[in-house]
Write a structure and sequence with these properties.
Number of strands: 0
Number of domains: 1
Order of helices and strands: H
Structural class: mainly alpha
Distance between the termini: 102 Å
Radius of gyration: 30 Å
Largest sheet: none
Shape: rod-shaped
Keywords: Membrane, Transmembrane, Transmembrane helix
Length: 75
């Protein structure tokens, strides 16, 4: 009886505490970190790359085409 009680206490306490703490802390920390890092990185990289590439390509193409056409036509 004592052995079973001890096992049950250890199992419930260990499992409950371990699972509760591990899952709660891990999920909270992991989700927060992943969300903040993932969202920040994903949004920052995606927006920065997309905007930079779009602006750079648009500006480069527009400038190159305009300059080339204007210079070629004018010259």
């Amino acid at each position: 009886m004592e052995c079973r009680f001890e096992f049950r206490f250890r199992f419930e306490f260990g499992f409950g505490f371990g699972f509760g703490f591990g899952f709660g802390f891990g999920f909270e920390f992991g989700f927060r970190f992943e969300f903040e890092f993932g969202f920040g990185f994903g949004f920052g990289f995606g927006f920065g790359f997309g905007f930079g590439f779009g602006f750079g390509f648009g500006f480069g193409f527009g400038f190159g085409f305009g300059f080339g056409f204007g210079f070629g036509f004018g010259f």
